[in-house]
Amino acid sequence: xxxxxxxxxxxxxxxxxxxxxxxxxxxxxxxxxxxxxxxxxxxxxxxxxxxxxxxxxxxxxxxxxxxxxxxxxxxxxxxxxxxxxxxxxxxxxxxxxxxxxxxxxxxxxxxxxxxxxxxxxxxxxxxxxxxxxxxxxxxxxxxxxxxxxxxxxxxxxxxxxxxxxxxxxxxxxxxxxxxxxxxxxxxxxxxxxxxxxxxxxxxxxxxxxxxxxxxxxxxxxxxxxxxxxxxxxxxxxxxxxxxxxxxxxxxxxxxxxxxxxxxxxxxxxxxxxxxxxxxxxxxxxxxxxxxxxxxxxxxxxxxxxxxxxxxxxxxxxxxxxxxxxxxxxxxxxxxxxxxxxxxxxxxxxxxxxxxxxxxxxxxxxxxxxxxxxxxxxxxxxxxxxxxxxxxxxxxxxxxxxxxxxxxxxxxxxxxxxxxxxxxxxxxxxxxxxxxxxxxxxxxxxxxxxxxxxxxxxxxxxxxxxxxxxxxxxxxxxxxxxxxxxxxxxxxxxxxxxxxxxxxxxxxxxxxxxxxxxxxxxxxxxxxxxxxxxxxxxxxxxxxxxxxxxxxxxxxxxxxxxxxxxxxxxxxxxxxxxxxxxxxxxxxxxxxxxxxxxxxxxxxxxxxxxxxxxxxxxxxxxxxxxxxx
Length: 628
Fold this sequence. Notes:
The radius of gyration is 27 Å and the shape is globular. The protein has helices spanning 29-32, 37-44, 58-62, 69-80, 84-91, 126-131, 136-157, 167-185, 192-208, 212-227, 250-270, 289-293, 307-317, 322-340, 346-349, 355-373, 392-427, 441-462, 477-490, 500-521, 526-550, 561-564, 581-584, 586-591, 609-614, 616-621; strands at residues 11-12, 92-93, 108-109, 298-299. Helix 9 (192-208) packs antiparallel against helix 10 (212-227) and helix 18 (441-462) crosses helix 19 (477-490). By secondary structure, the chain is mainly alpha-helical.
């Protein structure tokens, strides 16, 4: 249910004064002398296996004392088996792309300057944060997780340097150190910096594919976040209309919303429920980095579970943070996904037939209003995005919000495109081909919205720096795949729906972008393989349907050798000529999703072939994601 309070009118203080751990609730002295002691009594009577919470000062929470910087660096270098010079290069490397030494930072920070997907740390006080970590294992785990990211960019700028270990090396190191540190924590309170290390490890796992390891890591992150009560950072005290703590920790909010984004991304890919309960979320959306780093104040708000209200509350709060608006659009996309894939969710599948289109119409209206309400500096207006050092964060924010907007359009129109359209075509397959003239006006409109969103992504890619993928959120590769798959499917209709030459040209651009994600970020190559599978099955179906019309009066017979050529990999065009990935994965492409009831060689043996392929069978092929 939508929140009814006015929390967005409360100022978010961003001073660096540490806050009391949310996982260790304390009672203010004034509250102890008031009749509200009944609340403390109810806590005493609460069933729990935890000992009575003790008030722990902030110094003991971060570490008994500040470590000597040089001593800590030497320990890290010894643990990582690298020299102090390599450590310096990984941490700070010389500016490039025309950024002179007169800049505020004469040496660009390898991690902070290139991390555009999320912002976990208060940059001005980050060195102080590291110095307060007393555990060497936890400190090394955090630094290794950051190096697993920054080493990608250092190696790109210094390709001849053989002394810098690979990103995979630091990832393996971070995973091992984090696991050791987590075991050492045992039943003790889990430190935020160790969760931040785990978040960055999970980020790399999700980038490579939403499979078992990454999926389980998200669950661990969510459980730890709940343990630290990161979902209650801004919960208003029942006895005070003003927040009891005027210095909430923005880093906690950042960690919470990054985990929330991981949860939405992975659950959407796997078509499973999210681990986070959206109705139990009392943490404000993140504020702008520049405001946070300047220790200033700005209004913010919570994420309303109702997407028709969420954008209004954010607009009223005055929070112009790019990440806050990205979260709101992401939440709308997730709601559209739940309605567009009713067969994957029990709650959605039991809804009345008329509720789904109505709900999607509401989301379409909300998306229209949301895009109109976006702060002007976050709107992509067709300009060229340079992704230069002085505009990197801004350009990345525009890029991510624009692609997430198109993904929302995909989800909103998916139900109409691949349910109504597919079933109607299946019913008419006996008397008509896949001609766009057979589409109803509603189906035609849905296809137009779907293909327009794909074309918008193509235009964005063309108007970005060729190396922009290195500073784009790797999760967006799945949206690129959907846009490419839309080009493949649309070509199955005649040219009244789409110009085949334009669809082929768009497909080339999208495939090149997808390949860049695979090459730089290590995104699962399954995406490219599935794209080839989709085109192969559509072509096989089209060729088989043509043969069926010619010999529909003949009884079924075994497939001949010339018909088997339909499935021959050599007969398929190479989708990515420069990489020859289709030739390298011939067997994989031919065997993926092989269902016994589908005989692509002889469709006459399956009377409802058209319905199966264009119905939920096609929907399975259009299921994007890095899972195998």
